[in-house]
C-alpha cells in the first residue's frame, strides 16, 4: 500500500485545482451553450429554412439589394478600420514614448478606455448636436464662411456615420497597440546599434516583425467592431440606414415586411460567419504576438 500523498505535494495541488475548477468549467460551458452556441445555431438553422419550394434565405441574403447592404457595411467597416488603425497606432506610439507615470499618458489611456466603449444613443446625440443641421460645429464653420451642409455633408450619410465610428475606432486601436509597443525591449535597440545597424534597420528588422501581428489583429478587430455596430447607426439614420444590422432589425421586427423573417436570420447568420472567421484570424495573430511579450 502506497503512502498517502502530502497535501502540499504537486499531485495534491493538482487534485485540489481540478476539484475547484471543475464546477466552474461546467457552469461556464452551460452559460456558453445557453447564451451563445444555441442561439447562434438557431439563427443559422432558421436562415436555411426557406419553406417548401422557396429560395433559400441564405442565398437571397447575398444577392440583389441585400448584397448591396453587405457591401455598404463592408465598405464602411473597412474604411473606418483602416483610418482608425493608422491613427490609433500613431497615438499609441506617442503615448509609449511618454514616461509611464506621467499624467498625460494616464489621461490619454483613461480617455481611450472610455471612448472605445462609448456608443449608442449618447454618442449619436453628441454628434448630432455637433455636426447636425443646427449643430454647434456646423454653426461655427458657417460663421467662418464654410457651409458644411451646403457642401453635401450629412451626419446621417456614409461620411457622417464613418466620422462617428472613428470616435471609438481610434481609441480601441490605441489600446490594442500600446502592449505591442511596450513589448519592444530596449536591449533589442542596443543590440542593433552594437552591430552597426541604423534606426531604420531597427524599425525594419525588429519593430515591424514584432508589431505587425498586433496591428493586423487590431485592424480586423476594428473591422468586426464597425461591422457589428447597430445602435449608433440606427439612432443617426432614424432607421433608414442600409447597414446590415439595421436591415436585420427591419426583418425581425415583423411589422415592416411580412414573410421575410427568415431573411433576417439569414443575414444574421452571414454576420456570424464573418465574425467567427475574424475571431479565428485574430486569435492566431495574438498567439504569434504573445511570444514577444
State the total count of DSSP E strands.
Answer: 0
**Number of domains as seen in the coordinates:** 2
CATH topology of the largest domain: MetI-like fold
Mean pLDDT comes to 83
Q: For the report, how would you describe the main beta sheet?
A: none
C-alpha geometry: globular
Describe this structure in words.
- The chain is built from twelve helices and no strands.
- It is 75% helix and 0% strand.
- It has helices at 10-48, 57-60, 64-97, 103-116, 121-131, 136-143, 158-182, 186-194, 199-228, 231-237, 244-253, 261-290.
- The relative contact order is 0.13.
- It has 293 residues and is mostly helical.
- Helix 1 runs antiparallel to helix 12.
- The protein folds into two domains: 8-48; 57-290, MetI-like (MetI-like fold), CATH 1.10.3720.
In short:
The protein is mainly α and 293 residues long. It has helices spanning 10-48, 57-60, 64-97, 103-116, 121-131, 136-143, 158-182, 186-194, 199-228, 231-237, 244-253, 261-290. The protein folds into 2 domains: 8-48; 57-290, MetI-like (MetI-like fold, Orthogonal Bundle), CATH 1.10.3720.10.
Layout: helices, strands, pairs:
Layout (H helix, E strand, L loop, with lengths): L9 H39 L8 H4 L3 H34 L5 H14 L4 H11 L4 H8 L14 H25 L3 H9 L4 H30 L2 H7 L6 H10 L7 H30 L3
Helix pairs in contact: 1-12, 3-7, 3-9, 4-7, 5-10, 7-9, 8-9, 9-12, 11-12
Defining key terms:
single chain; 293 residues; mainly alpha; MetI-like fold; 12 helices; 0% strand
Amino acid at each position: 500500500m502506497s503512502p498517502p500523498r502530502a497535501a502540499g505535494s504537486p499531485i495534491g495541488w493538482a487534485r485540489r485545482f481540478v476539484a475547484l475548477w471543475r464546477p466552474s468549467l461546467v457552469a461556464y460551458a452551460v452559460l456558453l451553450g445557453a447564451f451563445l452556441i444555441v442561439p447562434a445555431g438557431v439563427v443559422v438553422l432558421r436562415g436555411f429554412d426557406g419553406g417548401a419550394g422557396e429560395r433559400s434565405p441564405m442565398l437571397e441574403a447575398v444577392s440583389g439589394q441585400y448584397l448591396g447592404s453587405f457591401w455598404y457595411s463592408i465598405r464602411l467597416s473597412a474604411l473606418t478600420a483602416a483610418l482608425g488603425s493608422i491613427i490609433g497606432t500613431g497615438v499609441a506610439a506617442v503615448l509609449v514614448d511618454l514616461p509611464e507615470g506621467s499624467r498625460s499618458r494616464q489621461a490619454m489611456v483613461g480617455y481611450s478606455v472610455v471612448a472605445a466603449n462609448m456608443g449608442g444613443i449618447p454618442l449619436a446625440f453628441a454628434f448630432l448636436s455637433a455636426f447636425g443641421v443646427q449643430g454647434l460645429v456646423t454653426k461655427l464653420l458657417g460663421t467662418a464662411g464654410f457651409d458644411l451642409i451646403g457642401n453635401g455633408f450629412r451626419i446621417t450619410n456614409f461620411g457622417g456615420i464613418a466620422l462617428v465610428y472613428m470616435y471609438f475606432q481610434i481609441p480601441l486601436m490605441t489600446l490594442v497597440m500600446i502592449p505591442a509597443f511596450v513589448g519592444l525591449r530596449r536591449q533589442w535597440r542596443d543590440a542593433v546599434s552594437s552591430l552597426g545597424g541604423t534606426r531604420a534597420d531597427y524599425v525594419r528588422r525588429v519593430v515591424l516583425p514584432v508589431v505587425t501581428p498586433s496591428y493586423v489583429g487590431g485592424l480586423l478587430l476594428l473591422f468586426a467592431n464597425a461591422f457589428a455596430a447597430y445602435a449608433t447607426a440606427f439612432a443617426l439614420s432614424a432607421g433608414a440606414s442600409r447597414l446590415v444590422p439595421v436591415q436585420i432589425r427591419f426583418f425581425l421586427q415583423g411589422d415592416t415586411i411580412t414573410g421575410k423573417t427568415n431573411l433576417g436570420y439569414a443575414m444574421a447568420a452571414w454576420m456570424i460567419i464573418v465574425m467567427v472567421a475574424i475571431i479565428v484570424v485574430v486569435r492566431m495573430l495574438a498567439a504569434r504576438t504573445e511570444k514577444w511579450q
